Amino acid sequence: MAACYATHTLDFSKTNQFSQLFLDFIAQKNDLKEFYGHFPNIENFEKQIEIKGNSFESEKRVVLANALQNQYKNTLNPPTNQIELLKKETTFTVTTGHQLNIYTGTLYFHYKIQTVINACKILKEKYPKYDFVPVYWMASEDHDLEEIASFNMFGKKYTWQTDQKGAVGRMNTKGLDNLGFKEEKAKELGKFYKDAADKNQNLTQATRNIVHSFYGKDGLVIIDGDDRELKKLFIPIIKNELQSQNSYKKIEESNKKLDNLGYKTQVTPREINLFYLDDNLRERIVEVENTKDEENNLFGVLNTDLVFSEEELMKQVEETPEKFSPNVALRPVYQEVILPNLSYTGGPGELAYWLQLKSMFEYFEVDFPILLPRNFVLFIPKLVHQKMQKTNLSFEDIFDSFDNLRINYATKNAENDVLLENEKRELLQIFEKIEARSEKTDISLQKSVAAEKTKALKRIEHLSKKLRKAEERKLSDAIGQIKAVKDNLFPSGSLQERHDNFLSFVINDKDFLEKIQEVLNPFDLRFLVVYEEDNNL
To answer: At residue 326, what are phi and psi to the nearest 5 degrees?
Structure first.
């Protein structure tokens, strides 16, 4: 592997990219402390180990390991050792989750997984008597196809056209191998989708094989929650959710507190936070009016004719728990029920909705994990870094708007004082004298003098803008380079990691992902700028 990338860190607040809720969480503001457990520093993991170690039953470990072995039966070189480790009471997981975005979606998908892998390595060094397994939880039951069906490579959007319905993980991958791209690296990934289609497998299996090809060597374990044996462990909470609907009440209580603190909440809970899951179907379960018997509840499935009595539904939970799929509010509880998990890694939006859930966890008597933010990365290619150096853009500058950068550059590099500061001072001195004379002559003239001063200053400001525009035309080459920097690092106005696919980078540097992973520190809670140095400068 070639030389590593250079790095620079910035406080999140310097980037103008994060919500106040996330910034206050990082700053450990007292108002937020009731909404999470332990803060994500490495010392607190010892406390979390004690909590989870005392509560997670060994029987669950056996069920988990057996389920994983079954899930990996169609994957070459499965992480057998890691799965066996999960049977030990001294083994814990560090988990991230993500949708099954085609071709891995945006860059930060990889950063999330690399965060948990590196966290496990650091935790093992700190607490050698324990073992730590990085886990990627596939959101295979999600039914929002639009969110996963496209990706951007080299400025072009590629989209999977399919009319399949229901949980995306169960969808056939036919057509995913041929989206019209010519890049060989992309075609290599496409083979995973073609192989799954040829073997009548699904998007879940294809995604598992793709991610395993990247991170199996790092001991990553990939879990699919759409699993009958794992859902059996969740039966008590499924029943509770259907009968009591207390998760709705608990989340709403937290939402009101957060609203009162001035924070915007991410998740709106439902009275029942469960979907009914079947082939080509994932729809919400709702209570429906029982006109014949008001004392006995009826449950329906939206957009279908399915209706159950409470007794029928409870029986179905026992017999086919795999048909009950938690929504975004309840899925975290499912995750923590079936995993010996210490922490969850996500982005600012995910961590924001986890902060809404702690009181619900307490109600279900499920341990709330440490919330460990993922690593946030902006990668600056060598040619872009050269443009930054030529135009004297700092790593902090690039997070400012292009308009501000353009104006500041023209102002600083103008041959003349385009701000007309001296002229403004001279004008103010003149009006001070006029004001003094008008005061002696006729005090009623002061308003007129003040109005004329305002007009004169506005005229100077107008001329200043014209001068600056003229200087911008003279500096158009340099300003064009600044625009090229912004367009490259913030495509479509978004952070690079939230827009671009990794293929845009790995095609030019086959070791790109490995080099990024090498410089990520999960416990350094700052924004990371990674760049290629130009040794010739």
So the answer is: -70, 145
